[in-house]
Amino acid sequence: MQGGAAGSEPPFGRCQGRALRVGAWRPLASTRWVFPQETELNLPACPPGPPKRFPVAAVDAILRDVLGSCLREQPYEPARCREMVKDIAEVIKARVKDLMIPRYKIVVVTHIGQLNEQSIQIGSRCLWDPVSDTFSSYVFKNASLFALANVYAVYFE
User: Fold this and answer.
1) How far is CA 59 from CA 7, 19, 77, 123, 129, in A?
2) Is 47:116 a contact under the CB 8 Å cutoff?
3) Which Gene3D superfamilies match (predicted)?
């Protein structure tokens, strides 16, 4: 079996249905890799993905409810908000886990800041499968503070 291009790295295995072919790669000339010996391992079929999608609408409702109830009348106090951000993240995570969605890893990230005529940009990056992984986000504001809560749901195969 041959493949590859000049300067490309050789693959270390190929999934062919239910079998994984493994062996030692060696360069042939300067432009190809040759797979001289193959061993086939019988592996169980990988599931195609989650049986049902993550309920983003339900998580949006949880975020709205938790942030609204915890912060509606709360003034911005740095020491108090530092503790509240941890508590809010734990409450959100517990309520999302109560939805009993199997095989999803839940990550909750919350931010609280002072609302005082300034701006802030908050970004995040994740490596995931767009078919099965998703997120939910909600921004809350009152007279003195803002809060952002993100819930990332990553499907665990």
Assistant:
1) 46, 38, 27, 20, 19
2) no
3) Tctex-1
| Of 64, 69, 71, nearest in space to 85 by CA | 71
Domain 56-155: CATH superfamily, name plus number? Tctex-1 (3.30.1140.40)
Would you state the structure tokens that stand for residue 94, as one six-digit string?
Answer: 């517990």
Tokens representing residue 62 in the block? 């949880």
Nearest to 131 by CA among 48, 17, 16, 45: 48
Q: What is the pLDDT of residues 5-15, one digit of tens each?
A: 444 444 444 33
Q: How far apart are CA 73 and CA 107, in angstroms?
A: 27
List the chain domain ranges. Answer: 2-42, 56-155
Tens of pLDDT, residues 35-73: 555 555 565 666 677 888 899 999 999 999 999 999 999
Question: Which residues partner with 154 through β-bridges?
Answer: 105
Q: What is the pTM of this model?
A: 0.69
CA dist 25 and 2 (Å) reads 10
Residue given tokens 């995570």 in the structure block: 93
CA 150 to chain centre: 11
